[in-house]
UniProtKB/TrEMBL annotation:
<feature type="transmembrane region" description="Helical">
    <location>
        <begin position="26"/>
        <end position="44"/>
    </location>
</feature>
<dbReference type="Pfam" id="PF07690">
    <property type="entry name" value="MFS_1"/>
</dbReference>
<dbReference type="InterPro" id="IPR036259">
    <property type="entry name" value="MFS_trans_sf"/>
</dbReference>
<feature type="transmembrane region" description="Helical">
    <location>
        <begin position="242"/>
        <end position="260"/>
    </location>
</feature>
<keyword id="KW-0813">Transport</keyword>
<dbReference type="InterPro" id="IPR011701">
    <property type="entry name" value="MFS"/>
</dbReference>
<feature type="transmembrane region" description="Helical">
    <location>
        <begin position="374"/>
        <end position="398"/>
    </location>
</feature>
<keyword id="KW-1133">Transmembrane helix</keyword>
<feature type="transmembrane region" description="Helical">
    <location>
        <begin position="91"/>
        <end position="111"/>
    </location>
</feature>
<feature type="transmembrane region" description="Helical">
    <location>
        <begin position="281"/>
        <end position="303"/>
    </location>
</feature>
<feature type="domain" description="Major facilitator superfamily (MFS) profile">
    <location>
        <begin position="26"/>
        <end position="466"/>
    </location>
</feature>
<feature type="transmembrane region" description="Helical">
    <location>
        <begin position="178"/>
        <end position="200"/>
    </location>
</feature>
<dbReference type="InterPro" id="IPR020846">
    <property type="entry name" value="MFS_dom"/>
</dbReference>
<feature type="transmembrane region" description="Helical">
    <location>
        <begin position="212"/>
        <end position="230"/>
    </location>
</feature>
<keyword id="KW-1003">Cell membrane</keyword>
<feature type="transmembrane region" description="Helical">
    <location>
        <begin position="150"/>
        <end position="172"/>
    </location>
</feature>
<keyword id="KW-0472">Membrane</keyword>
Length: 473
């Protein structure tokens, strides 16, 4: 009994540890920036045909409006932690949001495909810094015992914004020209900057040492090549020699980063964090959740368009239930985590993810829409319970001085997992266009594998953390 008393005391403290109004306001400011970048990752997809026609271009060129953005996100992401330590997370966040807003305006006024692609790359570079820097600001503001609640609110933007992107894009194109797909970010960004200047804390820059340029170049190149290889694989539906060569170059670049990091006194990322069992468990869970979430985004959209014959707008409307369930569950999941620790939520989320992906993998393609919607709403609830405990576990495991580093690394793993998950699901469907029922069963089967991976990662979280509490490092 005596050994359990500190756990109960810490659990009670966490449950009663209220977050003040100023911190909640700060949280919603950061959510605003995350929402803009999340929305931008998917809103443009539905407008590619219109953009191609009006700019007198080809789809092979304009698809770089999407690919260039994703590649740029991967390139700038590794530098986020170092920039935050060097200049302060608040100024870096404001600068990134300002850059993102200006790039959005440049996209809206672009008159050539080349100009639009360039502006989109600028957007991606800013977005890759904006997301982890915002998480760092919130983590530093609340501490490890209150991470669940703020990450739960942030999860509304991170999970729901990409899901509603196609719907928002369809509604815009229904009555407005394509530049409004980008112009919508401008007022959001301006409001975020104005609020951020008033509410962001005055974080003190530290001395992270000189930029490790070899490490930055190798990991940025490696991540960009991972995204490029998986995108090509998903689009082609097969592994051609060029895609294999790109994947090999990605592996070589990432291996170079690991070797270079071990040999420098000022590494870009502190890889020794993986020696911490809780950080390692949370990181694995983050990679699994990224694969599951991004893979399901591909499968669900195509399921309604190809399997049920819906146009993109109606398909986007059919996905509202998933997005709403994720957004509603996220804050509740955060509160649960702060009260009882991340393990229970992660275990329930993993079980629910398996239970909601398996039925669509073993049933006919022409299930009644209400049945499908019911399953997908339950799946949307599982997304928050899978994704949020992963980040909280990893971030709470490290000292506060390593928080920015930890957040950057977890975001990298989520992006790698997401790229692989989306590519695998796209390939399984694309390679069975003549037999769509089989293709979708295989794709949903891949989601089941991802859900099982999340459940196994939840078991790792349970073994790496003490039951009932998030223990401060």
């Amino acid at each position: 009994m005596t050994t359990e008393q500190p756990v109960r005391t810490r659990q009670t403290d966490a449950a009663n540890d209220r977050i003040d109004r100023a911190t909640w306001k700060l949280c919603w400011v950061v959510v605003l920036g995350a929402f803009a970048t999340g929305l931008d990752s998917s809103i443009v997809n539905i407008g590619l045909d219109s953009i191609t026609t009006e700019l007198h271009s080809t789809l092979s060129t304009t698809q770089w409006i999407v690919s260039g953005y994703l590649l740029a996100l991967a390139v700038s992401l590794p530098a986020a932690g170092w920039l935050g330590r060097r200049y302060g997370s608040g100024p870096v966040w404001l600068t990134a949001l300002g850059f993102f807003t200006a790039a959005s305006l440049a996209c809206a006024v672009a008159s050539t495909p080349e100009g639009l692609i360039t502006a989109r790359i600028a957007q991606g570079l800013a977005g890759g810094v904006l997301i982890p820097t915002g998480q760092t600001i919130l983590g530093a503001a609340v501490g490890p015992r209150r991470l669940g609640r703020v990450m739960g609110v942030l999860g509304i933007a991170a999970s729901a914004a990409p899901a509603i992107g196609p719907l928002v894009g369809g509604l815009i194109l229904h009555s407005l020209p394509w530049p409004w797909l980008f112009a919508i970010n401008v007022p959001i960004g301006i409001v975020g900057i104005m609020l951020g200047r008033k509410m962001l804390p005055c974080s003190r820059p530290s001395d992270p040492g000189p930029m490790h340029w070899t490490g930055l170049a190798s990991i940025s190149a490696g991540l960009a090549l991972v995204v490029l290889a998986t995108s090509r694989w998903g689009d082609a539906g097969r592994l051609d020699p060029a895609t294999v060569a790109i994947a090999a170059c990605a592996a070589a670049a990432l291996a170079t980063f690991v070797v270079a990091t071990r040999r420098t006194a000022h590494p870009l990322l502190n890889l020794s964090l993986y020696r911490l069992p809780a950080f390692r468990a949370g990181s694995i869970a983050a990679a699994c959740s990224g694969a599951l979430v991004f893979g399901s985004g591909v499968v669900h959209a195509l399921y309604f368009q190809l399997g049920h014959g819906q146009n993109p707008l109606h398909a986007g409307m059919s996905l509202i239930g998933v997005a709403a369930a994720t957004a509603i569950t996220a804050p509740a999941a955060g509160r649960w985590i702060d009260r009882h620790g991340p393990a229970p939520a992660a275990l329930v989320g993993g079980c629910l993810a398996v239970a909601t992906t398996l039925p669509l993998a073993i049933t006919p393609l022409d299930l009644p829409t209400p049945v499908v919607q019911l399953v997908l709403v339950a799946y949307g609830a599982s997304v928050s319970l899978v994704a949020i405990p992963a980040g909280v576990t990893a971030y709470a495991a490290v000292p506060s001085t390593n928080l920015a580093d930890a957040i950057t690394q977890v975001n990298i793993l989520q992006r790698i997992g997401g790229s692989l998950g989306g590519a695998v699901c796209a390939v399984l469907i694309a390679s069975h266009t003549a037999d769509l029922p089989t293709g979708f069963r295989l794709a949903f089967g891949a989601l089941v594998v991802g859900a099982v991976g999340s459940l196994l990662a939840a078991l790792l979280i349970a073994s790496a953390t003490r039951p009932g509490a998030i223990v401060e490092p």
